[in-house]
Amino acid sequence: MKGIILAGGSGTRLIPLTRVISKSLLPVYDKPMFYYPLSILMEAGIKDIMIISSSSDLPRFIDVLGDGSQLGISLQYEVEPSPIGIAGAFLIGETFIGQDNVALILGDNVFGHNLGPLLKKAVSRSHGATVFGFPVDDPERFGVVSFNDAGQVNSIEEKPAEPKSNYAVTGLYFYDNRVVDIAKKIKPSARGELEITDVNKAYLEMGALHVELMGKECPWFDTGTPGSLLEAAVYVRQFEEEKGVKIGCVEELSFKKGFVSRDQLITLANSQTKSGYGKYLLRVANTKE
Predict the structure, then answer these.
(1) Contact 200/143 with Cβ under 8 angstroms?
(2) Given a cut of 70, is residue 178 above it in pLDDT?
(3) Over 80: is that where the pLDDT of 9 sits?
(4) Tell me: the pLDDT tens digits for 195-244?
(5) Which residues form the Nucleotidyl transferase domain (predicted)?
(6) pTM for this structure?
(7) How many CB atoms sit inside 10 A of residue 39's CB?
(8) Sequence-separated (6 or more) residues with CB below 8 Å from residue 198
């Protein structure tokens, strides 16, 4: 399975912050925002990952993690010439995806702890699509999935005026290889974008859409507004201080997944020892399991 992080868009809801830097490079407490979606793909066992962003922002992503080899993964980069919608990521990444299945995650989505079991279920499905639903107070802002009395998915709508449920579809999606052809066939919406909801509807019509429901035990933040960006940062700080472990720490995850050795983790830590982040990595490396 391949992985794609879509870190494009213009970030208009975060102006003037996004006049300075890409939304996905903004800090969420002690890490760049895109570390969090990257860590989700890595947690799912995906090591071959493409980051899609604008031509002006891509060099900054490359400066941060390069080709990913120091993390035991492969990072590639591709330009999004202009924002064409989430489903456009499959057109941009068609050659990269090849004949593989693919997971797509948005660069501004931050997931909390405890997502691991749901990721395993999604990865285990070689056929169809898997999306994740999270209960929200304002579902009209999102793609919304609803269910019949038997608990089966019966609709998925993009920003409905009258939502049929309060379950928003998060910015994390797993698809089989058919997604590329499906993305090619959908038409731009009224706002001129290739909507990911239309891709999900296609899988629903084929009877191949799976929905994993998340709850309070696995928080989710769409950090596209100043308020939600702050909320995510506060959550990360509180969790890390209370539990003594980090969320979205890609170096630690590389070590625990066996992508890098203990000595390689120490090397990564030694390059950052003036920060609390680097000191944390040294503690992880020196902890006997």
Answers:
(1) yes
(2) yes
(3) no
(4) 999 999 999 999 999 999 998 788 999 898 899 999 999 999 999 999 99
(5) 2-235
(6) 0.94
(7) 24
(8) 87, 158, 186, 187, 189
